[in-house]
Amino acid sequence: MAAVVEHLYTADSSEEEEEEEEFPIEPSNEAVLESLLYDRESHNLVLVGCDGGKVTAHRHVLAARCPGFSRSLESNPDGFTTQKIEEYPASVLQVVVDYVYTGKLKEQEPTEDNGPLKWGNQRIQLLNSSHFFGLKRMRDEVMVQLTPKTALLMPEVASSGSRTNGTASKIKELSYLQLQNLPDETMAEAMPKGVLNALSTPVLTEIMENECLEATRRFEILSVWQGARRDAGDPDLKETCRDLAKSIPLHKIPPTILATKVKNSGFIPRDWVFKALEKQALNAETACGFPFFSSPKKKKRIKLDTGTCERSMPGLDA
């Protein structure tokens, strides 16, 4: 943290009074702040959103607090007062600028005037803009608004400690889970194609009431990430999916969900599924009767606690 000291003068006194205001300055922005702080001529920066609206802010505040804006300021040093940012509408930029000034994100909820569709789309835009402008804290706060159950879904991501191992991708994709509480038309507008398909199954109530909540929710998250990875082609997300797949205790997932959902995941080897079924001591007919195993490609002998059977199953080594 660094302190910006502004000198205030009164008409009747020549004494100088100091008032300190704390600014969370990124180390790389200190030089920019130094050059702009008392440059009153270029104090204002007008941001023009894609909807034609205008948002006004002070250049030195943006330089001190926002890495994304600072990069723009450094790349346009010569006397500009207007910057066009076509990616986001003015309503979203206003929320971003308000956060830069106050350090607080307005916790708006869907209302009659600001319905679930509009609210959901704006939160997604805020999430993207926080990444665009390098506002990591704002990104995390948007995630809290989108996913109030984040602590249940992924405790190590929701913690306030260090964030590593592709967390940006984790948090971004995790946010879409909360949108399943919104109407179908909202999801269709606000969510990528693969993510929407992954969340379309009506299993949320069953999952929330199940004693194996954590394992099942992680399995749902993997389905979401898998769909998002296909849409975005994100290599970091691919590694995240692999790590998450290894961390899921499959034997704790209800067999009905396991059988219907695992076929959509490219990160769960099928022999893992059979080991999970064995641990659950399922009988042979139940295990071999799942639709997931209906494609006759290779034969594998499955040993269960209740017996042995032989049936054609895909993707298994003979």
TrEMBL record:
CDD domains assigned: BTB_POZ_ZBTB_KLHL-like (cd18186)
Domain of life according to the entry: Eukaryota
Region annotation Disordered: where it falls in the sequence: 1-22
Family annotation (InterPro entries): BTB/POZ_dom, SKP1/BTB/POZ_sf
Limits of the BTB domain: 43-109
Membrane spanning residue stretches: none
Biased composition (Acidic residues): 13-22
Protein name, per record: BTB domain-containing protein
Taxonomic lineage: Eukaryota, Sar, Stramenopiles, Ochrophyta, Bacillariophyta
